[in-house]
Amino acid sequence: MTTEALTAILRDILRARNFYPEHDGRFQSTLYADYDDRLSPDQLLAISSAPHKNDAFYDLLADYEDECRWDAQETLKQEIRQAWPESADDTEDFDALEDHIDDILMDLVDFVLDYDHYRQTPVRMNILVNTGDGNYDFTLNNWLDVRTGPIHPRSALLWLCRQQGYGKRDINTALKMSERPDSPFLASVVDECDNTLTHMNALTFLVRMTVGDFMNWMDYGGDITVSADTTCGLYDPWNGSGSLLGIRLEQAIRIPRRYAEPHVDGARGYSIDSIYYPVSTIWGDTVVGWHPQRKKVAR
Questions:
Q1: For the chain, which residues make up each domain, given as ranges?
Q2: Which superkingdom is the protein from (predicted)?
Q3: Is 154 exposed, middle or buried (0-12, 13-18, 19+ CB in 10 A)?
Q4: Are 154 and 135 in contact (CB under 8 A)?
């Protein structure tokens, strides 16, 4: 039997099966995952640490996709065997053509893993804010150590206060008060500074997002906006410490991409889970906006 005749038979069989849609002469087969199948914690950590997140995502799933493709090809071949027109006078036996059928199916059918399913894997994200205090080993946010001195302009905590509508005068007044400030935000900032145990403390936002959103944010850039309900505080992943994570935001805040150093919890030093207690509720779905970078227009 010629390759053209064999291909025509295979096309007829595939067209009779509605779950193999045809597009531009090729048939598509989606390799669906179980509803509860997700990327493993180790895979999430590997993606978080990779320089190019989407590339790492596809590389990590490559072997699994090959396994699924092999299983799907074998299942499809059994379906073709059952539908083979053996009664036709001009049709050879399926077993005699099996190797040839394998070669044609590889060129005829595309088996594609349901990547979107894995992109929906939820991740607990720690967004460290580095406004320049990273050059000082994140030691610029320990304000109770410098009550009598000036607040460093590179402090991420100063940046946060300004984003919430408070300037240095408001902050210095709050730090020197014997009573709690009237502002819940400033009062929580003072409490946060009063409960640090180490000198390295990075301003950190805790959010939950899908791994797909995280990868796109990292690979394609842009600022994000988090709501006032976001868990926020001082965190020391290098020494396994931190403060209360109890800063009470008064309004949503936009975090510039140039300041954001996000990672999956556990991918950078000590995890928050290991420092505090294993609880997932402090990471919330509080990302309310993503602002992709505008593409430059060629002139």
A1: 3-120, 122-291
A2: Bacteria
A3: middle
A4: yes
